[in-house]
Design a protein that fits this description.
Distance between the termini: 50 Å
Catalytic activity: dTDP-alpha-D-glucose = dTDP-4-dehydro-6-deoxy-alpha-D-glucose + H2O
CATH superfamily of one domain: NAD(P)-binding Rossmann-like Domain
Number of helices: 12
Helix content: 40-55%
CATH topology of one domain: Rossmann fold
EC number: 4.2.1.46
GO molecular function, one term: dTDP-glucose 4,6-dehydratase activity
GO biological process, one term: nucleotide-sugar metabolic process
Bound molecules: nicotinamide-adenine-dinucleotide, 2'deoxy-thymidine-5'-diphospho-alpha-D-glucose
Cofactor: NAD(+)
Strand order of the largest sheet: 3-2-1-4-5-6-10
Number of strands: 12
Shape: globular
Order of helices and strands: EHEEHEHHEHEEHEEHEEHEHHHH
CATH class of one domain: Alpha Beta
Structural class: alpha/beta
CATH architecture of one domain: 3-Layer(aba) Sandwich
Strand content: 15-25%
Length: 348
């Protein structure tokens, strides 16, 4: 079986690639990634020579290139993770999100459809999506697979749009598909623009911790390796044309999470208790900031037996240790481009 995993050099993608390459020696895993600012082959250095693994650098918005790639490999399965993934960047440059997340997904869908035409037996197009498509919750309630789509940011609107196209290809062309909508991931190899790695990096460097608004926004956090296990299960055992929500059963208000992170960092860095908390700085809110996300993951739990394997305290502990032990990785991704982004985002 030949499987295309897109976005495999990114945060979640690199964990999925690793799991598939190590678990399935009989599959040929092709990692297609454009290596944008978010893609980093260092994440996969130790498995790059495996015989069942091929890396291809390329852009999913390049239709000719994608059609040639499908012609060459005739992928039985696609696990599609490549995307522009950061909400703040989508507010500054929405069109980039439409190009990759919507047009790029369409180009992959067409290539998959044209490769298998009317014979889709044992084929699957699996789209990795987000809980942000559901918009925001109030103080109570959970997102289920039946919750209506109501995206609020250009990022979530682009992901919602691509989800709809995947579904439409299933209904219109009989293309087998799966979609999963997952909550906030954290763990090693996450680019330090997202809350947890950004704040770890800032604490290391004694820089301010920019908390948006009053900090009372809530997210449901999941350890990235648990997400990768869920993706493996859905790919192999999920029902055709189904959506599964994936979440950590682990809601945290941003400010409480940041305080926990500060405590753990003080201990690990042997700093005076309370010194990291003093870096907390309340800054201008994110426009259209969703108040609360929380996932009801009972469907994937009951149908496929999945549940998170680590507690948040354990996962956070491992994550901090990884960043402290991999400061070189952190330095290498904080390039000139990162500095420009950081200045634009936080110094205005
Ligand atoms: P990421 O930004 O870390 O990685 C994205 C990867 O896609 C990078 O390697 C990048 O080089 C690649 N890429 C971007 N544009 C491309 C293009 N045009 N062609 C080919 N490759 C391209 O993202 P992530 O956090 O790992 O998220 C992966 C997927 O999971 C995304 O689809 C995202 O919407 C979804 N998701 C993320 C989270 C989360 O908390 N991070 C939660 C739920 C769902
Ligand atoms: O819910 C899943 C989504 O989680 C994924 O689809 C996205 O790809 C991923 O980026 C993530 O989106 P968020 O916007 O929730 O993640 P982020 O880490 O950017 O922010 C988490 C929360 O922290 C959010 O309420 C905004 C807040 N925040 C974030 C940053 C970067 C701050 O208060 N300050 C910051 O500097």
């Amino acid at each position: 079986m030949t499987i295309l995993i897109t976005g495999g050099a990114g945060f979640i993608g690199s964990h999925v690639i690793r799991l598939f390459v190590e678990t399935y020696p009989n599959y040929h895993i092709v990692n297609l990634d454009a290596l944008t600012y978010a893609g980093n082959l260092e994440n996969l250095k130790d498995i790059e020579d495996r015989p069942n693994y091929t890396f291809v650098k390329g852009d999913i918005t390049n239709e000719v290139f994608i059609n040639d790639l499908f012609e060459k490999y005739k992928f039985d399965g696609v696990i599609h993770l490549a995307a522009e993934s950061h909400v703040d960047r989508s507010i500054k440059d929405p069109l980039a999100f439409v190009k990759t997340n919507v047009i790029g997904t369409m180009i992959l869908l067409n290539a998959f459809k044209n490769t298998w035409k009317d014979n889709f037996s044992n084929k699957l197009f699996y789209h990795i999506s987000t809980d942000e498509v559901y918009g925001t919750l109030g103080r109570t309630g959970l997102f289920t697979e039946m919750t209506s789509y109501d995206p609020n940011s250009p990022y979530s609107a682009s992901k919602a749009s691509s989800d709809h196209f995947v579904r439409a290809y299933g209904e219109t062309y009989g293309m087998p598909y799966a979609i999963t909508n997952c909550s906030n991931n954290y763990g090693q190899n996450q680019f330090p623009e997202k809350l947890i790695p950004l704040f770890i990096n800032n604490i290391i460097n004694h820089k301010p911790l920019p908390v948006y608004g009053d900090g009372n926004y809530t997210r449901d956090w999941l350890y990235v390796k648990d997400h990768a296990v869920a993706i493996d299960l859905v790919f192999h055992k999920g029902k055709n044309k189904e959506t599964y929500n994936i979440g950590g059963f682990n809601e945290w208000k941003n400010i409480d999470l940041v305080k926990l992170l500060c405590q753990q960092m003080d201990e690990k860095l042997n700093r005076e208790k309370g010194s990291s908390e003093r870096l907390i700085t309340y800054v201008k809110d994110r426009p259209g900031h969703d108040l609360r996300y929380a996932i009801d993951a009972s469907k994937i739990n009951q149908e496929l037996g999945w549940k998170p394997s680590v507690t948040f305290e354990e996962g956070l502990n491992k994550t901090i240790d990884w960043y402290l032990n991999n400061e070189e990785w952190l330095h290498s991704v904080i390039s000139g481009d990162y500095k420009t982004y950081y200045e634009k985002q936080y110094n205005n």
